[in-house]
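Consider one such protein record:
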Amino acid sequence: MTTTPDTYDLVVRGGAAVLPDGVRHADIAVRDGRVAAVLPAGTAGASTRSVDATGRWVLPGLIDSHVHFRTPGLTHKEDWPSGSRAAVAGGVTTVIDMPNTVPPLFGPEDLAAKKELVEGASLVDYRFHVGVDPARPGRLKEFGGTDAGSAKAFLAGHHTAPHVLHGEPALRELFHAAGEAGLQLVFHAEAGEVFRLLDDWKGEPRQWADYESRRPRTGAIVAVARLVELVQEYGVPAHILHVSTREEADLLTAAAAAGLPLTFEVTGHHLSFTVDDTRSLGARIRLSPAIRDRADQNRLWEAVLDGQAATVGSDHAPHPLADKLKPVAAAPPGLPGVQELLPALFSGMTRHRPEAAPAELLRTVALVLAERPARLFGLADRKGRIVTGGDADLVVFDADALWVLAESEIRSLCGWSAYQGRTFRGQVDWTVRRGEVVYRRAAGGAEFGRPTGRYLPWHATATDTA
C-alpha cells in the first residue's frame, strides 16, 4: 500500500489509552516509528496495519531500568535475543542493562565494545549503566562527554558482582568524579562489611532459613544512611536500587521530601515474595538484597502506590537452575523477572487496592514503569508517554485475564521462573516498539518481531527528575 499523508503505518484502534492527562478511548496512529496522532476512537482512517485494542488497555511501552542480560561473558545465563524476547512478552520495550559482566563495563572502550555486541540482536531499545572500578573510582570521569549518563556502584558483592567499592575515601572519590562527569549514580546499597562481620562470627548461611538473617536489613540501612549524607554534601543525584526494608523506604522518602536528589526503586520480586516463601521456593528466590518480611513488603507496596518509589524494576538476573541448586553458600542470588514484571505488579496492585479502578492502577503502572524511569534516565525526549511525536512504544494489555505462567511460556534462556504456577491477573496481548509489532500473543504460540532495537544515547533535559 502506498503511504499518503492520510494513511498511517499502524493504528492501534479503540483501546482505553493510558495518557499523561488521563485515560480515554482512542485510536493511536503511527507513522515512521512515532506517534502521529492520538484521535477519538473510530476516527483514525486508513492504515497499512491495524491492531484491534477494543476491550483492552493501551499503555506506553514499559522501561525496565534494571536488567542483567549477561553480555559479555555470561551468556550461558542469558543473552540479548532471549532476554529481549522475555522483555517484549512482558510489555517492556526499553531496558537499561547493568555493567557487572565479564569483563565489566568500566571504560568508554568497554561501552563501545558492548554496543557492537548487542547491535542487531535486540527486540527492545536499550541503554547501559556504566560501571565503577573500585580500584580507580575516579576513572568515571572518562565518561564525561560520552553518551553514557548513569553509573552503577556495588557496595556489597556476590557471585556475579565481585567489584565492590570499599571505604570512605573510595566513596568520596566516586561522588567527586560523578559530579565532574555529570553522571547519575545508581547504587546496590548494602554495607558489605556488615555481612563480613556476621560471616566471620557465624559462618556463611548453610540452610535457606538462615539466609535472610545473615544478609540482614542492617546492611541496607547502614549503606543508605551513608549515601544520604554524601548526596547532601556533594549534590550528586543518586538512585537506590532494590530497596527491601521499611526503614530504607522511610529514610529515602524523607530525604526526597527535604529536597535531596535521591530516588529509589522497588523490585517486582520484593513486592511478590516474603521470607515465608523461602520454605517452599528456597533457592529460586535467593536475592541480594534478601527477601524480607510481610511488614517490609507492605511498606514497599505503600511506597509504590502512594508515589514515593520513583521506579519499579525487575532486577532480571537469571542463572541456570543447576547453579541455583548448589549448596546454600555457593548458590548465586538473582532470578529472572523482566517477563513477569508487569503481571506481577498489576496482580499485586489489585490485591492491595481491591477498591481501585483499573484506570487508577494502570496510571500508576505507567508512572513507575514508563514515565518516571524515562525522566530519571535521560529518555524523556521520546520514551515513557503516549504523546504525539514520541516513539510509538505501546502495550495492549488485557486487565481482566486470569492465567497461570507455564514453563513453556518462559522466554528467558534460563528456562525457569519463581512465578511458575502462580495465577496472574492481567496479560500482554501485543507489544509495539517504535511502530513495529515485536510481540503478539497467539493461540498457537507467541509471535515475535525483528531484532531492530537501537542503542539510546542519554539526552539530558530539564525534565530529568523523578
DSSP finds 13 helices and 18 strands in the chain. Residues 377 and 464 are 7 Å apart (CA to CA). Confidence is low (pLDDT under 50) at residues 461-465. The radius of gyration is 21 Å.
